[in-house]
């Protein structure tokens, strides 16, 4: 009788563990897999021989992959913070488009410097519609921690911030944007971003790789 009760208790425990573990595992692994899939595609593009001497085509391919995983609306909203509320719908659309070009070009230039680094996916945390995927970029000289913050919209996980060695991209831009708007104006910020984007796009036309 006691043996039967122990056997029944054991089966109940196993059953409960399966119920508790399986759905969480499926959701959690999907977040990391989505990030890994995007990074793998980026690495493949950077390593393509047919794009080695065609920076324009390489940048175009990189932008297409990046755009599928980045949530620019969330990035801009957080980067502008309270200044987002003061903008009209048209200004928001225009600024988001400008920020998108800025990030596409600046991020692409850094990706093009990739050279046989190893990327380890070390951890992930999920809280409701938000997730954090932690990675390490292992180089010969050092290891860099890069964490990706994601938000789930309509069942799709997209990156709205990434943290490199403890420095948040969104917070960094928020600090710069707030300072420029406070010192000069929102219009001055738009002009400076436009100039920066033009410089980056001009550099993208060069045939020699850009040095960081």
Summarize this structure briefly.
This protein is α+β, with helices and mostly antiparallel strands and 212 residues long.
CATH class category label: Alpha Beta
Q: What form results from the Cα inertia axes?
A: globular
Strand order of the largest sheet: 1-2-3-4-5
Tally of helical segments:
7
Question: Please, what is the CATH homologous superfamily?
Answer: Tgt2/MlaC
Domains (count) = 1
* Computed Rg: 22 Å
- Compute the separation of the termini in Å: 73 Å
H/E element sequence: HHHHHEEEEEHH
**What is the beta-strand fraction?**
15-25%
Tally of strands: 5
Task: Report low-confidence residues grouped into runs of 5 or more.
Answer: 2-28, 207-212
Largest sheet: 5 strands, antiparallel
* Integer average pLDDT: 83
Helix content: 55-70%
- Decide which structural class fits the backbone: alpha+beta
